[in-house]
Design goal:
Structural class: alpha/beta
Helix content: 25-40%
Radius of gyration: 20 Å
Number of strands: 17
Length: 229
């Protein structure tokens, strides 16, 4: 079951969009929830995991991007549906999957849904909280990840790190395929791997281009070697 949220403050537009979305998924089982305000959407997303968000940008005078920036670290795709086509570049810069201009057609919604079903890990940024504020980190700046209980420590190219409130598994759902699991507690960008080192006792290590060594699980050796060819 795919869980979908539509955030649109105009009742008739929301109703039309919901119908088009249901038609686009055809016989696939989906559950749709419509929110008519930014506050309602924020409350709903805080308590319900979803797979896809359709988001208007002008919500009773409030900016839909406020919601989007708060939720970028969640493992769902976002399709913006808005008359503010001048903000398309801004939307793509923060990792939305598609920007559908109003007035929209069934064909255009179908195209957006088809794109969603073909994509994984297309976000360009991770968000995290620091001193109570939402921060954006370009995914290109992520070097590797280390599991820390239900959280995950994110190490950056500049050797700094921060604790993310999402698990390693959830963050991997957001990252492009260039990031691979190398150990039950570690994931790394393939581009950052310099070499594989084998030690006595069937212990393996990865050396990164930065000189950092990370443990490589024995069951992951073959997959990592295949990615390095």
């Amino acid at each position: 079951m795919m869980n979908i949220v539509i955030v649109e403050d105009e009742y008739m537009v929301a109703k039309r969009l919901k119908r088009f979305v249901e038609q686009a998924f055809n016989q696939q089982p989906i559950k749709t929830k419509t929110c008519h305000s930014l506050d309602d959407a924020t409350d709903y997303l805080a308590e319900h995991p979803i797979d896809l968000l359709f988001l208007d940008l002008n919500l009773q005078g409030q900016d839909g991007f406020t919601l989007l920036k708060q939720q970028l670290s969640q493992s769902f795709h976002t399709i913006v549906v808005s008359a503010n086509s001048d903000r398309a570049i801004e939307a793509f810069e923060i990792g939305v999957l598609d920007f559908v201009a109003k007035p929209f057609t069934q064909e255009r919604i179908q195209k957006a849904v088809d794109r969603m079903q073909q994509q994984k890990g297309q976000s360009k940024y991770l968000t995290y909280k620091r001193l109570g504020k939402i921060q954006l980190l370009a995914i290109s700046e992520v070097l590797y990840l280390k599991a820390d209980g239900h959280y995950c420590e994110v190490f950056q190219q500049n050797q700094q790190s921060f604790l993310h409130d999402k698990s390693l598994d959830k963050l991997l759902n957001l990252l492009p395929d260039d990031f691979i699991r190398i150990h039950r507690s570690y994931a790394v960008s393939v581009a950052a791997i310099q070499s594989i080192v084998a030690e006595e006792g069937s212990k393996y290590w990865l050396t990164l281009t930065s000189g950092i060594r990370l443990p490589l699980g024995r069951t992951k050796v073959r997959d990592v070697k295949a990615r390095l060819i």
